[in-house]
Amino acid sequence: MNISTALNPIIAVTPVPLAIVDTNLNYIAVSAQWTSLLQLEEQSLIGHSHFAIFPDLEAQQKALFEDCLNGKDKTIQESKYQRADGRVIFLKWEIRNWQAMDGSIGGLLLYCENIRRKSFKDQQLQEDLYQSENQFNQAFDHSLIGMAIISPEGKWKRINRSLTQILGYTEAELNGHNVKEITHADDIADNHAALKALARGDMDKVRVEKRYIHKDGSIKWVVVAATMLFDREGHPLHFISQIEDITQRKEDQDKLVRSEKKYRSIFENVQEVFYQLDE
């Protein structure tokens, strides 16, 4: 069995554009990806010279191939190639020598990739990422309720303007400090337990009522809706928290409760008076 017969079934199914040539630059084996990318499906390659297939590339590649046959691997960062359908693509070439059983150079291994297509995909991914980040930043910065990014250790990383108005602190004053530093003492334990459950992945989100201490010392009641973001390996990255000021609602509820108690007391006292009069 010659080397071409042995290699062809293996190289043919290699999932990259790959070819092997001998020292005369005649093809020994090629992958299906190679013939597809270069649009050579209709040509017989095995046994034919590389430059017979690519005469337009000889001026650019001949000296490089000779260097590689002398033991110097080469890379061509960008090479223009026109396919049979007239489409022009830009290729990156990797040229490596391979050794025969006796240790001598037996030929070259050729690899190429369509760098413009890859570049376009990279640009599209970057654009999608930019748009996603921009939309998040817009929503974060201009939200009418407080928003915060908090580290897994419970430290402020980023807050929006609405939250600074709720708490009375600037972002610079809070960043790097622990959330519990301005959390009401009676709420620290429950708040800590909820965040730990999120970080462990025990739940997707939490919603709790708690009290913050405003910079001026007053109490701010808030509803915190939080979720945890994880990296690809499942490690916690940071909490995303939405924080709504419900202080006025709490004060109104307290007033209502006090009012109800007051009128219930009056009603009960009136009933007692009528009861005594009836007697």
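The record above closes out task 2.4. Task 2.5 opens with a second protein, given below.
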Amino acid sequence: MLDFAAEVRRAGFAGEVGLLVTDLGGHELYAHAPDVVFPAASTIKVPLLLRALEQAGAGTLDLTERMTLRAEDRVPGAGVLHELGPGLALSWQDVLTLMIVVSDNTATNLLIERLGEDDFNTWLREIGLRDTHLVGRLQLPPERQNAAQRRGGRNRTTAREQVRLLLRLWHGEGLTAPMRALGLDILARQQLRDLIGRGVPADAAGQPLYRVASKSGELMGVHHDVGLLWTPRPLVVALLSQGGSDPREHPANRDVTALGAALWPLLADLGHASHTGDI
């Protein structure tokens, strides 16, 4: 089996990585520092999605209900809502979709406000997650940050707990069948595929040979991707990294390129997949 840590160094990445790969039954196939805590970046949106779907299935969140976007709701960074004017009427399903598909930070904050930070963190503990924690809403100016954020606190997670969340979704734990299907569908439409989806081979028409349902995350020097990969042996993958040296948000980012180059050969081997698409 390939040594991912050695391969990623050989590819030129000098930072820290955490990686866990399992099958859909949760059986560990590869692990490197899976319990190291990393800044969550946008992978915090995975448990937010699951909690919202759980509430929707229980009838305490109506996904068809509409809320109105206010000027003060808009925050910078990933997504599109900060580019749009106030007064837009969004359903909660729209909010979930934007939060994942284009990693919209404004949509994420709307959901955090709806779920409640303390209630959300209590739920994380209830489902057995000790290292994944929401410190606060995203991309707030200093005067709107909470005390923990002003002290430098950051949302956090581990590769192992991201895998546990993805397995929870796959097995429908706490979810109705329609909400499980919706969650998988939303993750499969995620548009930022720089790591897990980067090396997936395509057919002659350019369509990926293997379906991916994933969520990326990025901060300065931080590049994450977590998701489900339907290779011949389906995989659950969580790759977290920090300490990258290329600050560019660009497909040719050297850190992303190095991580992706090391990751796909390992996933292809573990998933009994074609490296090139010639199957």
